[in-house]
Amino acid sequence: MQIIIDPNGSWYHGSDQVFTVLRANSTVTQWRELAEAFSHRPTRLSYDDQGRIHHNGTQKGYLYIIDEPVATGTDIYQHPRTSMDENTEFLTRRPLKVKMICEL
User: Fold this and answer.
1) What range defines the domain where residue 70 resides?
2) Which of 11, 17, 29, 33 shows its CA 20 to 30 Å from the CA of 84?
3) How far is the CA of 98 from the CAs of 1, 2, 14, 47, 62, in angstroms?
């Protein structure tokens, strides 16, 4: 599956915790549904070529959006050990301010 990064697009993080600052070395993605799936703390997660996500997570989750400007390559970088397609997962280089946008 091909994922194209929008330099002006939103970045998401899914978690089962409540917070206002995302720690450095956390994962972020522009694929909102993927962040939602990760918020449920799955031990298995996959997706098909049409972007349908399958996972076994059952935890209550929260979806966050990064609430400050983010520069690819400076503030975030491609996850070096991801098993997912290119541009799917990025890691944060520094703490980033987030805003919870929904409870899942």
Assistant:
1) 12-103
2) 17
3) 28, 26, 11, 26, 11
